[in-house]
Amino acid sequence: MTPKDTSAAASGPGAPVLDAQGVSKRFGAVVALRDASLILNRGEVVALMGANGAGKSTFVKILTGALAPDSGHVRIRGAEARVASPAEARRSGLVPVYQEPSLIPDLDVAANLRLGKTPVAAFRHWVAALGIADLRLDDLIGRLPLATLRILDLARALAAEPDVLLLDEMTAALPTDLVDRVLSVVRAQADAGRSVIYISHRFAEIARLCDRATVLRDGATVGSLAITPGVEERVVEMMLGANPPRQSAAAQAARAPRAGTPRLAVRGLAAGNRLNDVSFDLHAGEVLGVVALEGQGQDELFDVLAGNRRALAGSVAIDGQTARLRHPADAIAAGLTLVPGDRSRALLMSRSVRENIALPLVARMAKWGVIPARNEAARVSAAIDRLQIDTRAQGEVRRLSGGNQQKVTIARWIAKGVETLLLFDPPRGIDIRTKRQIYALVRDLAAQGAAVLFYTSELGEVQQACDRAVVIFNGRVVDVIEAQEASEPSLMRAAYGLTSGDAARKAAP
Amino acid sequence: MRRLLSDSGWTLGLAGLLAALLVMTKLIQPDFGVSGLDSLGRAALPFALATLGMAVVVIAGGIDLSLASMMAVCSVTAARMMEGASDGQSALALIFVLALGAAMGALNGALVVASRVPDIVVTLAMLFVWQGTALLILNAPGGAAAPWLRALGVGGLTLPLIPEALTVWLPRSVIFLMVCLAVIWLPIRRSPLGLRFYAIGSDALAAFRSGVPVGRTKIAAYAVTGLFAALGGIAVTMSTGIGEPIPGPYLLAAVAAVVLGGVVLGGGRGGLIGPILAVFVLRLVRMDLTLMSVDPNVTTIVEGAIMVVVVMLGGVLAMRGRRT
C-alpha cells in the first residue's frame, strides 16, 4: 500500500474517514511498528487483528494520540491529525474506549461526566440503551463493578458523538447479555454513519459486527480482508505469515508415561474476573505448555499456583494431596516455584548474581544464623555453570542482558532443587541462542523428574519445548494438543476459540 | 441521606472529637474561656494554613516538602517590605507576597512535571533552596508587621450593630482562616480545576485519557499550595510581629493533620474541612496535656499514638462500611 494522492479525494464523500499510512515507531533498539496502515470508511466497522506482539497496542496508542509516530501519517477526514494527547484526538473526532476503564475511581459518575464535558442526557440515553437500568449519577466509580464501568465508558464515548469510535477489547469483561447489547448498539451506530475500529480476539463477535479485518504482523499491515463466512482461516494464516514450520526438537524425545498420581492436579480453578474454570493434570517428567491470547486468565492461573493470589473456586492437589496456597512461601514449600514473566518482579536488581541465586536457599525462616557460605557457593556455581550465565557483570543483576537475567531467575530454583517449575513466558524479549538454552534446560529438568508448566506467548515454542499444550480461552480450557499436532496454525485456531469444546475434556481425564 | 453521612462521616467524627476535647479542656481548666479560645486560634493559625496547603497538593496526588521553607521566605519578605511602610504600601506588600507564594509553588510543580523526578525528591531539594533564600532575605529574625495586619489576628470578633457579647468568643484568627478558605478553596472546589485536582490524584492515567491536562493541573495544585504557604508565612509574621527566616515545625505537623483529617496520602480523596479540624484537635490535645502538666516528651508520644489509632480506626470502619 503506497500513500496515494489523498488531497484530491479527501473532500469527496467516498473519502476514508480515517487514513493511516506508513506508521512506524521504535523504542530504543526495538521496532514496534514498521509500516502499519489502516483505512476506515464512513459507516464501516473494521477489526484490527494481530497475534501477540504484532504491534497492535502501539498502533492504537498512536491512533489515539497517546504516542507520536516516528514516521507516517494519520489523517482524519482528510485533515492531518497531529494528535498529541487524548484530548486532541477527541476533538478531531476519534474517541477511544480503552481496555481498562478510564473513569476516575474516587469521583462519582456525575463528576466524571463533568470532567470530560460529556452531555448528561445523551449519556443516560446510551447507558439505558446498553442495558444498565439502575445507574445513579451519585454512585462512586470505585464502587461499581468492572462490567458496568466498561458500559459507562462506552456510553460516555457514544455521547461525545464521535466520527470514529475505537473499541479495544470492549467485551472482554462483560457478561453475555451485555455483550449482545453492545454489539447491537455499535452495529446500529455504524449503520447510522459512524466508523468503528474494533479490536478483539473473539472471532464470533468480529463475524457478527465487522465489515473488514485489517491484519498486523511484526509491526506491518499485511492485508485487509472482507469478513465473509470462513474468512477466519485466512486471517489466522495472515497473522502467522508464511513462516516455514520449525523443527520440533522436543517431539522426538521419549515421553515419560503419564500414569499414576499427577504431580499437580488442578480442578475447576477460578480467580479474579478472568480465570473461570480451568482443570488439567501435570505429571512428573512432563512439560505442559499453556497457550492463550493475552488476558484469558493465564496470569491469574500462575498467580494462584504461586500463592500470590487466592482462588475463588476449585482445588489444587500436589502428589494427590490438596494444597493450600495462601502465600508464596506455601507454594515454594509445596515445591511450586514461579519464574514470573516480568523479570524485575523476581530479581533484586542491584544485588549480585550470586545473592540472587542463593536467595531461596537462605530465605527459609528455619535457617537462622550464619549462612553456610561454602555449601551455598558450590550450589550457586553449579547452577551458573549449568545455565552458562555470563558473569562478567555479576556484581549487579541490572547490568546483565535480558537473557542472562532470565537465566538467573531460573538458576535460583535449580540451585534450590526443583520439583514443579512454573515458567511464565520466559523467552519474551531474549535472543534466539538463549532461548534454545532455556528450552534445553527445561527438557533436562523434565528428564530428571521435574514437572514444568510453561506459558508462552510465542506459539512456535510449544513444539520445541513441550509435551502437550492446554489452550485457555475466556478463562476456560478449550483444547489440549499433543506436541506433534501443535503446529502454529492449529494452536492459533484453538487460542481464538475456533475449536469445538469437546476437546477440553481430554485435559483432566 | 445515608450517602451524605458516609461521605462526610470522617469530618463529622473529627468535629465530635473536637467538641469532646473542648469540653474536656473546660473541665480541666474551669476558667478556659474567650482568651483561651483566642490563644488557641492564634497558635493554630499558621499550622492550619500550612495544612490547607499540604492538603491541596496531596489531594492532587503530590506532596510538597518545601512548604515550611516557603512559609519562611514569605514571612521574611512580608516583614522586610512592611518595615516602616505606610498602610497602603504594606497592603501592596501583602499582595506581592501572595503572588510570590503562588509563583514559588508553581515553580515546584513545574520542576516536578518537567523533570519527572519523584515529587518527594524535587520538593526536598526545594526545601533547602527556599531555606537558603529566606536567610538571604533576612539573616536573623527582624522586620515588622503592619499594625492593621497584627490586629487582624488578635482578639475576638467585633461587628458593628451586634452586641459584642454574642460574637467575642469567636477568635479573629479563626475568622481569618475561614475567609482564606472561602476565598481561595470554595471557587476552586466548584470549578473544573478542583475536579481535575481530584481526578489526577485519584488516577492520573484515567484523567489523561479523559482529556485532563495532567501536567498543567499539577502545576496549578502546587501553585495553590504555594499560595496557602504564603498565607501561612504572613500568619507567622502577623502573630510575632517580625519575619522568621528559620522554618518552623510546620511541615510534619501539616502532613500529620492532613492524614488525620481524612485526606488519603495517595491522592484523590478527602476535603479541606477535615484537615482544619485535625489541626485544632492536635493543638487542643497538646494544650490539655500541658494543662495537666504532663511531661512534654510524653505529649509528643501521645500525639503520635492518637494519629495512628484514629487513622487505623477509620480504615477499619471504612472496610466494614464497604462490606455491608
Structure, explained:
The complex is a heterodimer of chains A (509) and B (324). With 509 residues, chain A is an alpha/beta fold. Chain A folds into 3 domains: 6-240, 3-Layer(aba) Sandwich (Rossmann fold); 264-335 and 418-506, Rossmann fold; 349-413, no CATH class. Chain A has 18 helices and 20 strands. Chain A has a 6-stranded mixed β-sheet, sandwiched between helices. Chain A is globular. Chain B has helices at 2-7, 9-28, 34-59, 67-82, 87-115, 119-137, 147-152, 164-167, 172-190, 192-202, 204-209, 214-240, 250-260, 273-291, 296-323. In chain B, helix 2 packs parallel to helix 14 (273-291), helix 4 packs antiparallel against helix 5 (87-115) and helix 14 runs antiparallel to helix 15. Helix content of chain B is 76%, strand content 0%. Chain B has a domain at 33-248. With 324 residues, chain B is mainly α. Chain B is built from 15 helices and no strands. Classes of the chains: A alpha/beta (509), B mainly alpha (324). Chain A binds chain B through residues 85-87, 90, 96, 98, 100-107, 111-112, 114-117, 138, 143, and chain B through 3, 192, 195-196, 198-199, 201-203, 205-213, 268-269, 322.
